[in-house]
Amino acid sequence: MVTFSNIVKYAWLVPLLPFAGFLIIIFFSRLLKGKSSGIIASALISLSFLISLLMFFAQSDSAVKSITLNIFSWLDVGALKIPFELLIDPLSLNMMLIVSGVGLLIHVFSIGYMLHDERFNTFFAYMNLFSASMLLLVMGANYLILFMGWEGVGLCSYLLIGFWFKNDLYNLAARKAFVMNRIGDLGFILGIILLFFTFRTLNFSGVFAQLSAFTPNNSTIVIITLLLLVGALGKSAQIPLFTWLPDAMAGPTPVSALIHAATMVTAGIYLIARSSLLFNLAPFTLDIILAIGLITALFAATIGIYQNDIKKVLAYSTVSQLGYMFIALGLGVYSSAIFHLTTHAFFKALLFLGAGSIIHALSGEQDIRKMGGLKKKLPITFLTFLIATLAISGFPPFSGFFSKDEILMAAFARNPLIYVLGLFGALMTCFYMFRLLFLVFYNQFRGTPEQESHIHESPALISVPLIILAILSVVGGFLNFPEIFGGKAAQANFLSVSLTNYASNAGHMAVSTEWILMAVSVLFLLFIVAFAYNRFIKQKMLPAGDEIPLAFIPKLLSNKYYVDELYNWLIVMPYTALSEKVFPKMELNIIDKTVNSFGEYTMWLGEKVRRIQAGNISFYVFAMVTGVIFFIIINLYF
Amino acid sequence: MRLEDFLLMRHELLLTLIAIIILIAEIFTDDFKKQGIRPLSIILMAIVTIVGFLPAPTGTLFGGMYQATDMRLMMKNILNIGALIVFIQSASWLKSDDNQNKVSEFFLLLISTLIGMNFMISSGDFLMFYLGLELATIPIAALAAYDRYSNKSSEAGIKLILISALSSGILLYGISMIYGTVGSVYFDKVSVAYGATPLQIMSFIFFFTGMAFKISIVPFHLWTADVYEGAPVNVTSYLSVVSKGAAVFIFSIMLVTVFQNIAAMWKDVMWITAAITMTLGNLFAMRQNNLKRFLAFSSISQAGFIMLGIIGGSELGMAAVVYYILVYIFSNLGAFGVIAAISNASGGKENMSDYDGLYKTNPALSLTLTLALFSLAGIPPVAGFFGKFFLFTAVAEKGYWWLLTIAVLNTIISLYYYLLPVKAMFINKAETSIAYFKSDGWTKVGLIICVAGMVIVGFASVIFEYIRTLSFGL
Amino acid sequence: MKDMSVALKFIPLDHYVLLCIILFSIGVLGVLYRRNTIIIIMCIELMLNSVNLLLTAFSVYHSDPTGQIFVFFIMVVAAAEVAVGLAILVMMKRNIDSVDINLLSRLKW
Questions:
Q1: What is the per-residue pLDDT across A532-553, written as a single tens digit (0 to 9) for each?
Q2: What is the residue range of A319's domain?
Q3: Do C101 and A605 touch (CB under 8 A)?
């Protein structure tokens, strides 16, 4: 009999299997020919998925919903006790299923997609390492293990974005992602340190157990939550740390699907949801989260309207959808955030894989102005892409409708203005997604005839994951079928063991209001689709070419509000100037002059810039003597 | 003195014994059999290392001049491990044509420095301390100049001997003043009578300078990079790890015992120097292209981090220092081991640009180097993270928030340059990257020990707990 | 012997200390300003000798032999140090045909 407590004993296998895959592929890289490394990687991920699934079913029969599994005592230093523990509870199970399930599909997809890449083996090694880190992240029972996984996924993301390292721009993108994430990580580290000094433990349960001693908006708690929020902002690509995500599309498309849509970017959401009890004590931070989420959702959606690169559109859409999840977090309805996270993982992975399939079919073309009319040539891709578009736009009964609706309802209960803004964002989402759909699949093909002759539907390895994800995108909404339709809100109840919503806003609304709001939003959506149809199919309008100057607002939007330039101007340029100008100057003027005044110690070494005779022992002695005198003086006279 | 008392000194006596064995072997072997000295020395050293871990009595000898405590034994064992790894790593380098006829000299000189370090760590008075320090320093100058016909090597040797002679002069001056003001050179007497008169403060500063030179703390660090670059890689690795570790050990012991009366003062001095050392070490490391120099500067900044634990001054801080040195031995020797292997195989390629695309040709070596650099940088899963974490906890415990902030910022800066070689190996493309080569058995064994050490020391919390149980004489 | 130490104590300790400070400083300045490696080594010896003198003086004033024993060890160690230093110096002379430390600039930034 497989009981929950029995099967949980094997939970450590879940992150370990992909990690073993990474080691196997790295060390036997020379022996693995053809598809074998992809098959190994996928097989190991599927085992992880299977174990997670078994745990899920065993858990639903079990009375105990959450088990902490102690692997070994990790750090045990006086007050500091950090065991290496895994926490298996509804929230982590939910995330494990997403990571291993969607991860498995993307692994299978990648076998077909990356087959002709010369670094096929390395790719799968990285992918497996990523999966292992991500699973560790969601399974850790304390903040330090979470952080370990957090850093691991960051590293893999860096490696995978720069996977095609022959392109310098891609390397820059990888570096940007890394730096932005480091800024977030700094906040996270400080948050962990502060957590430890406040609570003397880093275990989730240990921290949460002590919370009753704090009053809401206690300043320590607010600071901790703000620091954790900084970490989440970096990982989940929210304003102001969002610019790395669109650039991260430089990586291979499956990477974008796995890391930058379905899993890694949701780590920030997970962190906040996991700390829900902590954030409930800091309404101030929740308001900030709400504001950031709202601004990001709208901001990114407006940019998405004017992008012409298929992956960039999807990237901004991801940022915008993550913004919705932040709105949900900010409203304190964590379960809705996780619900949207789940459905988003399905349809956004599907969209990215669909985009990958299109790019594959068009031999690397990513500009939607050069696509069109692909509906007949790529029927499976079209159908799945259509489903995903409907899902993300929020048409009933596709999954996105339910999850987004939950968030919007909660927003309405808080303040109708938030609802209106959120709906506005949703409508923009609908517009740019249908713009994408129409431009890519309808009308005539606009690429070169040579490209046209090569167009072919992708092989089964690519299309099967698409179909499975499409099914999930359709039915995903029924995971948490709302009560208004006679459902049981199954996922929210399931998660209630791990999450405590700040205020169950949604429940207090009159049923009639809810119906009216839904009807309004669907009506608006239909209107937007009609508008897009008229514009892009009837009138066959095309986004202007790069050479044609744009009006002010479109120009602003297609250049992403010049945020990159702003950051460049504000941070990168002064910093570079500092390191290029000031440092050599300091070296030349201060050190060099000091040394020069002791004339005989220095020699001018030709025309080289670095003229310090630093190999000179006399200077070393001089430095030592100066040091001694300096210390004597400060200690005797100060 | 009873015969059993010699057991207290078994580290030093065993090392002296193997030095004599190697000397005899050198005399009685023919020229063409000299290569046998390499495995002989390594095996002997391995035996000494293992014997060192056997339980042993503790106590004092020579009226308190020599002290054997559990903590000091632990420190000696850590140094033995480091020396053993250096021995193993240098095996393939010593096989080359240039070095064939001076194999035993290398081992003899290394063992004599190790004996010096052991005496230094066990010292109970300034005389023993001074003798140990000099025995640990002078042979290293000869080692730095090991490549007899290389300009760089001789330059490194002369720089090291001059600066070390100068700093030992300054140190002695400090010791003589301590003797003058206190009237004794025994640590326990000095610690009681030491005050904060101007002469004593001066004497401490002089003493501090002498030690700061060994640990290479700014502004007494300038020799480090030159000597590290000029000396043969294996000597550099020994210098940066074992030699520095020994100095840190004895320095931390002395600060918390001998100079405990003026703790407030030396903590201020250390505060400033630690902050400057970390920052300057980082700033210079950032701009290096030669990997040996790069590691030299990084080791300067590491010295700054190590000082955090001493400043913390608590039992946790001291344990953190010892633990960090252990971690540092594995990480730095891992990094140096890879660099040495590549330098030997490729005819002296040591620049970062030479490492472009190394991952493609030599994946195992690049992964090892990556792991070592991660450990040095303190990225979580590896041992280095825990080392840094304990050090940071130690200063945080005492409320040095500014210092902690500086240290954390420096850690982040250091991540940048530690990742540069990683980037070169994994991401940069190269027209001609270093071709694939097979390392010989010794190199492999050395690197495997380092990798295992980095992983095990990080995950087995037993080790840190054990170090913590050892009384530090506080 | 007893008379000797009494006789020595006629000179105040301050004088010894000052003399040693002067000698030590001369040594340090010599290391700083000289270019010839041999002279630098001699200057270091001067520093060590000032230390020796200081130790002996303190030893007499404390009526404690430790300081004087220390001096013997310092002399021995200094000799060893110089031996190694000169050996390396010979090597350097062979390699670059000079003992001017300012020529030692192959290793730098």
A1: 777 777 776 666 655 555 566 6
A2: 282-483+492-547
A3: no
